[in-house]
Amino acid sequence: GINYIDTSPYYGREESEKAIGAYLRDKPAARDRFFLASKLSYFGRHRQQQYRDLFESLPSEKQNAIVKRAQEIVEERSVGKPGVFFRYFPGQENELDWEYRIVAMQRDYGHRIDGNGKFRKYMFEILEDSFRRTGVDHYDVLFCPHGSPAPEQLEEPEMLATMEEMKKQGKCRYLAVSTHTAFDQVTRKAV
């Protein structure tokens, strides 16, 4: 039988989690028969939006320099090449562009975004919303970030501390990361 279920708020626009919740309401004893994994899927978008807002506030010459540096990083790492970049959903290429703009911005602007206190609150909100949909009070495996396209995303200190806090509070048994792009680079960083 099935012993591992992987879900995410992204899957079916939250319908996957709702379906699991409906199943577990009908068969509550079934929860102990499988590992249940989910992801803090919206974390990356929230972080990316903060960087986008900052980017838009910069003068055009700084924006151009950031875009150029991001393109250089993608080229240096071969991120856009087959075998490194896997297209899972329409528009994923745009997210990749933005994530590497963030990488290019982190040195000069990261202190204004990362570790600012907003991520912790947002991460707990994402998790509690997920619990409401699935009807559980913990996950066996919790992924964050979901679909990380760059190893630098794993360096966000507030994300790491919040994940550890969630584990200590019993909201998850194991922590994990998922990636669609540059999996070798992200995996090395995670391990």
List the helices and strands and how they pair.
Layout: E1 4-6, H1 15-26, E2 35-39, H2 43-57, H3 60-77, H4 92-109, H5 118-134, E3 139-143, H6 157-168, E4 172-176, H7 183-190
Parallel strand pairs: 1-2, 2-3, 3-4
Helix pairs in contact: 1-5, 2-4, 3-4, 5-6
Question: How would you sum up this structure in a few lines?
Answer:
It contains seven helices and four strands.
Protein architecture, described:
The chain is an alpha/beta fold. The protein is built from seven helices and four strands. The protein has helices at residues 15-26, 43-57, 60-77, 92-109, 118-134, 157-168, 183-190; strands at residues 4-6, 35-39, 139-143, 172-176. The chain has a four-stranded parallel β-sheet. Helix 1 packs across helix 5 (118-134). The radius of gyration is 18 Å and the shape is elongated. The two termini are 31 Å apart.
The largest β sheet comes out as: 4 strands, parallel
What structural class do the secondary elements suggest? alpha/beta
SSE pattern: EHEHHHHEHEH
Shape: elongated
Low-confidence stretches: none
Number of helices: 7
Main features:
191 residues; alpha/beta; 4-stranded parallel sheet; 7 helices; 9% strand
